[in-house]
Amino acid sequence: MTHPFPTPPIQPLNRLQALDGLLITADRWRRAHEYHRQRQNAHYQSLNQPGIVCGLGVRAIPAPSSVKAEYRDHRWVEIQPGIAIDLAGNVIVVPNTIPFRIATEVPDSEPVMIYLVVSYVDPEQLRRDEQNNDFVEETFRIDEKRQRPEPTEIELCRIFLQPGPVSITLPTDVFFPGYNNLDLRYRIQAQSRPQAIVRMALVSHKDPEYARTFFNLAYLLQAVEVLHPSLRGADDVGQVSLEENIQDHDLLYLTGKEAISLNSREFEALKIYLDKGGVLLVDAPNDATALIESIQILAQQLDYPLKPLEELRRNHPLRTKPFLFAALPMIQQQVIQVSIGGGIILVVGDLASAWGADQDLTLSRVVIRTAQELGVNILQYAWRRRQLFGLQQEDYSAQW
Fold it and tell me: How many alpha carbons lie under 13 Å from residue 383 in its C-beta half-sphere?
């Protein structure tokens, strides 16, 4: 799968070989300096992710007096000076405030999300005056668009435009912006690059309770970045059936109470997924006897027989990576049970029910955090298993 913050291209760097009598031409001078730029960008891409370094705030302003009367409306914002670094490691510097008019019209009945982005502009790609200048300034461009930002663009803000006349305003609550409000919640800061983005999907099946803990899966993915920064949870939890393309997910989550029964296509797809390093997490309530027994039988059929975690090595990654567990967590006054067979993990005790706030807000912080830490261990195990399998496959570098 593709990492949202890919590593540098796998290609050798060429540097100028300095010898006595070397003739310095404009091309050689350019290539000699391009080498250093490529090394710097490669270093940034290898260890960091793109984002905003500082500044680049956005605020609503009155229309500048210098614009034509027809454009003096309530659609103006001001972008503050600041610095960002893009996906390729290029530094974007906005040295001065920039007034910008939101031009999108929304004539229909449905609101429209627009994105304000900044991107790097290579001066080599610009038209130049015929005058010879010794130095050229690296620059940038600001764009307003309806589509989500491209990988090379840095989001400054987004605005959910309401149909009809538009008046851009600051939100009353910055955590919950409304229509025509500046929304700065999704800006990405430049920071250390995670080793991987972990993708989880809920498996849909015939049991009517298959989605009962769906929202708690998102709580776990949100917790990963804080509890174990070298991993990052994907923005959204997927939802798949076993007949679909499940290879794009590191972890498949399945729950319910009824026995699981797979047809031949589902069985074969799951077998391929597990044999390529994928992980199936089955999270069963204590009274889900039918589901538990069917998973134990399925694990045997898939050649991944389950064993209790207590019978495995004491340094098994589910027990030690990244969080150390001697005793397993207690959910609803009962200790959960964990069995594992290669790519199948069976948890008995409804672990995901403690990954988020319960409806009555009765779960303690200790219970939630302990359950989340075990969940992070499971995600780390799923990512690491796929990575180790992938390293033994052809063209692994193009997938990760």
Answer: 24
Residue 267: its pLDDT value, please?
95
Residues 80 and 202 occupy one common structural domain: no
* Residue 196's pLDDT band (cuts 50, 70, 90): confident
**pLDDT band for position 201 (cuts 50, 70, 90):** very high
Count Cβ atoms below 10 Å from residue 389 Cβ, excluding itself: 16
The helix/strand/coil state of 329 is coil
Left (φ > 0), alpha (ψ -120 to 50) or beta: where does 212 sit? alpha
30 located within any domain:
no
Residues ≥6 apart with Cβ < 8 Å to 49: 5, 188, 190, 191, 192, 193, 194
Both 272 and 259 in one domain: the answer is: yes
Is-contact 291 355, C-beta < 8 A? no
Across 127-152, average pLDDT? 82
- 77 inside domain: yes
pLDDT for the residue 303: 94
Structural domain boundaries, residue 215: 196-395
Tell me: pLDDT of 235 over 90.
Answer: no
Contact between 142 and 78 under an 8 Å Cβ cutoff? The reply is no
Q: By three-state DSSP, how is residue 45 classified?
A: helix
Give the pTM. 0.81
Cβ proximity of 96 and 56 under 8 Å: no
Q: And the tokens for 347?
A: 């948890």
How many domains does the chain fold into? 2
205 plus 179 within the same structural domain: no
**Residue at which a domain ends, from 159, 176, 191:** 191
Asked if residue 117 is part of any domain, the answer here is yes
